[in-house]
Amino acid sequence: MVSATVVTFLQRAVMQGIPLLYGSTGEIMTEKSGNLNLGIPGIMYIGGISGVIGAFLYEDSLASKADANAFLAIFIPLFCTVLGSLLAGLLYCFLTVTLRANQNVTGLALTTFGVGFGNFFGGSLVKLTGSDVPSVALTTTSNFFRTKLPFAETTGWFGKIFFSYGFLAYLAIIIAIACAFFLNRTKGGLHLRAVGENPATADAAGINVNRSKYLATCIGSVIAGLGGLYYVMDYASGVWSNEGFGDRGWLAIALVIFAIWKPNLGIFGSIVFGGLYIVYLFIPGLAMRTQELFKMLPYVVTILVLILVSVRKKKENQGPASLGLSYFREER
C-alpha cells in the first residue's frame, strides 16, 4: 500500500515537472537545428500571458460564467498561446538566422522582453479587473483545463498518481514521445540533426538550412509556450501573478542537458526535477536557508550529469556540434 504522503509527493512532482517538460522538449527541438535559444524562459512567459489574455477576453464576454462553452474556453487560450509563442520564435529566428545576430545575446534579450511583456499585460489586466491583489483569477476557464480523467478517483493510489491531471499534462508526454520519434526515426529528423551537426554539409546535400532552423525553432517555441499555459491554467488554477513563474524557464534549459538532448528522457527528467524542486516541503523542520539549498538540487544534478557526459565523451550524448553558431553560406 502506497502512503498518502508518497502519493501526494509524486503528484506534485509531476505537476511541477510538466512545464519543464514542455520547455525542455521545445528547446531540444530548437537546439537540434543548431540554434541555442536562451529565450525559452521569456517565451514561456509570453505563451502564458497570451493564453491569459485570450481567457480573460472570453470570460469577460460572457453574460454569466455558467454560459461558458468547454470548446471555446480551451480553444481560445490555446490559440492565443500558440500565436504568441510562435511570434516570439519568429522574432528569434529573424534575428539569429536571417540577420545572424549573436544567439546568446538574442536569447537573453528575448527572455528579458518576455518577462517584461508578461508583467506589463498582467499588470494591465489586474487594473482592468480592479482587484485588490496583484493577480488575475480565471477560475472558469481553468476548470476546463484541470478536468481529470473520470476514473481517476476510483482506481486508488494508482489513479491518483497516473490519471489525476488535466489534458495538457498528457499532451506534454505525447509531444515529447512524438519529437523523439521524429528525431530518431524519420527522414525529416535526420535532416534536422544534420543541420545541427554540420550545416555546410547539410546545405551541400540539398537541405534548406535556414528553413530547417526556422521550422525547428518556431515549433520548439510553440511547445515551450504551452508550458507557460499549463502553469497558469492548470498548476496555478488559472491565477496569473507577475513573476509567478520563478526560475522554471531556466530549469527547463537545464533539463535539456540532464536529458542529454533526448525528449523521451526528458519525461523522466522532468519528474525528477519536479520532485527535487519541492522535496524540501516534505522534510519537516527545515530552516529557511536550508530550504533554499534544497532548491539548488536540480542545478547540482545537471552539473553532475554534464560532467559525467563530458568525461565519457560519447557522441550520441553530446549536444549538436554547431550549437550556437550562425551559418554563413558564403563561407562554405
Q: How is this structure best described in words?
A:
- It is a single chain.
- The protein is mainly alpha-helical.
- 70% of the residues lie in helices and 2% in strands.
- It has 14 helices and 2 strands, in the order H-H-H-H-E-H-H-H-H-H-H-E-H-H-H-H.
- The protein has helices at residues 4-31, 40-60, 70-98, 103-129, 139-145, 156-162, 167-185, 187-197, 199-204, 209-235, 248-258, 263-278, 288-294, 297-312; strands at residues 135-137, 239-241.
- The protein has a two-stranded antiparallel ribbon with strand order 1-2.
- Helix 2 crosses helix 10, helix 7 (167-185) crosses helix 8 (187-197) and helix 7 packs antiparallel against helix 10.
- The longest helix has 29 residues, at 70-98.
- The N and C termini lie far apart (63 Å).
- 43% of the residues are buried.
- In spatial order, strands of the major sheet run 1-2
Low-confidence stretches: none
Mean pLDDT: 91
How many strands, what sense, and barrel or not for the largest sheet? 2 strands, antiparallel
* Terminal residue distance: 63 Å
Beta-strand percentage range: under 5%
CA-based gyration radius: 20 Å
Share of helical residues = 55-70%
Number of strands: 2
Shape: globular
Concise summary:
It contains 14 helices and two strands; from the N terminus they run H-H-H-H-E-H-H-H-H-H-H-E-H-H-H-H. The protein has 332 residues and is mainly alpha-helical.
Fold blueprint:
Blueprint: H1 4-31, H2 40-60, H3 70-98, H4 103-129, E1 135-137, H5 139-145, H6 156-162, H7 167-185, H8 187-197, H9 199-204, H10 209-235, E2 239-241, H11 248-258, H12 263-278, H13 288-294, H14 297-312
